[in-house]
Amino acid sequence: MDHQPVLLQAVLEGLAIRPGGTYIDGTYGRGGHSRAILQRLGPEGRLLAFDKDPQACGQAWKELGREPRFRIRQGSFTQLASLLEEDGLMGRVDGILLDLGVSSPQLDDAARGFSFMREGPLDMRMDPQSGQSTAEWLASAEREEISRVLREYGEERHHWRIAGAIIRAREIAPIQTTVQLAEIVAKAMPGPRQRIHPATRTFQALRIFINHELEDLEAVLPQALEALAPGGRLAIISFHSLEDRLVKRFMRDAARPPQDPRDMGPAPPALMHLVGKAIMADVEETEVNPRARSAVLRVAEKAGGA
Question: E-strand spans in the chain?
Fold first, then answer.
């Protein structure tokens, strides 16, 4: 299935794109959001994109490499501040988009190892040339560490039981494929089959852990606030509660900075203003693009704009 940009119209409205503005797409994916932003930019506008995935960057160069208003950088969006400082753009960006999670092409490519629905090497890295694969990590991780990852990143109730099953299985044979791991998890789960596949939370947890997704999100949020010009917009699409919790808390605290109870002076000024409420895909979009079912968009604007 072709990659469908999630909540596209809501993102474009949330960013309130100005034709001559400077924008960041921190998660290029397959470029659906980027192309739509470029369509709304004039000759003076510019768009800088990031992606960890070398395949995504290669596709971007193929499709947009000759577009003078566009530039892409392979790497994590955690490099945002350093790159903008090099270009003299810190505090001058009009809008930043982060579409978190995995793109449809990544899920559909069995060789990437993201999905338990397809037999493939147990990799899960956004950048296959960097860091440990999931198979490499599971080959040596202690039961306690595997259990912690499943509990913290997957909110998996049966984390200890699944971690034990993984340890026992790898003593018999290396766990090298997605289907192998999915079968180990399914057999370890107690009770009757649930509505969702028993390996869903385990695969989510391992992907988040292997790619440092929550740590990267925590690192980029303050950078994004600093990068925005007054009146600039930050739009973030998250796909599970752990991400959304971080985004919601950051935006809320920036909109209502906490005050020391010993300080009797006026409340600290807001750093951001929330733009509307959280937005989720409607039935029409989820029927066309099932990936949108769990998507949540939050938008905030940096204080000080006109």
Answer: 22-25, 46-51, 70-74, 93-99, 228-238, 272-274, 279-280, 296-302
**Residue 14: phi, psi to the nearest 5?**
-65, -40
- Residue 56: exposed, middle, or buried by beta-carbon count in 10 A (0-12, 13-18, 19+)? buried
Give CA–CA dist 237/38, Å, rounded.
Answer: 19
- Give 213-252 as a DSSP string: HHHHHHHHHHHHHHHEEEEEEEEEEE-SHHHHHHHHHHHH
Strands 272-274 and 296-302, by their bridges, are: antiparallel
The DSSP symbol for 78 reads: G
Give me 187's structure tokens: 């057999």
Q: 3-state DSSP call for residue 15? A: helix
- Which residue is it, tokens 């400077």? 22
Residues 6+ apart with CB under 8 A from 24: 47, 48, 49, 50, 77, 80, 93, 95, 96, 97, 224, 227
Q: Which of the four pLDDT bands, split at 50, 70 and 90, describes residue 1?
A: very low
> How do 228-238 and 296-302 pair as beta strands?
antiparallel
pLDDT, one tens digit per residue, over 99-120 is: 997 766 666 556 566 676 778 9
**How many residues are there in the chain?**
306
For residue range 128-175, list pLDDT tens digits in order: 888 899 999 999 999 999 999 999 999 999 999 999 999 999 999 999
pTM above 0.85, yes or no: yes
CB-based contact 122:202 (threshold 8 Å): no
